[in-house]
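Ticket #4471: structure export looks truncated?
Reporter: QA, pipeline team
Priority: medium

Steps to reproduce: submit the single chain below to the structure queue and open the exported record.
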Amino acid sequence: MAKHTPTRADQLRRTLEEEIFSGDLKPGDRLDEQSLAQRFGVSRTPVREALRQLSASGLIEVRPRQGAVVATITLPRLIEMFEVMAELEGMCARLAARRMTDVERRHLASLTETAEPLAERQDLESYYGNNRLFHDAIYAGSHNRVLEEMTRSLHHRTAPYRRHQLNRPGRVHESLAEHKAVVAAVVAGDADAAAKAMHRHVNVQGDVFADFLSTLPTGYIMA
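Actual output as written to the record:
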């Protein structure tokens, strides 16, 4: 499996994400290109790209006469994004169970095998990379271009929150078990079971959602 090498912009985006989720960067804080370039010892080009990525995911917003600032997300908005994401990914899994080729099914299964040692040693960065490939395989396996494009678009907006969830104790092993349930259903060609397993995997609700919210800094989420 080819390993994705993060660009400088990717690294900057990840660092700024961590600072937002840790509370070091608070809602309303301004992110100045020149200041960030000086801080990280880079040109403004990777900084501009990192800010573009953060804006696309909704973690920052660009305001008139202020430039880029850390966004404040509302609780209803966050819930709505995960609800829609769960439905879209469930549909992808349903179609994948019906339409994936044997080669695609073997590739999907191999990704969970590769993820096992990553989960065991708590290599969160590598596990998330594997997780991205897993979901990409499900989207592509739906063989529905419109659905794939819509799902990828929303996945990009929820990605920072999904990545952050992995920091919760025990979440990586839960995630892997959920992946295995999806794979088992897809390989068996059980469309209903695949959709339900993926929906459970993506939809953050109940105690799990409360645990997730508890990891976010005070003031980050508005009711």
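Status: closed, not a bug. The export was complete when the record was re-opened. Leaving a note from the reviewer for reference: The chain has two domains: 8-71, 74-222.
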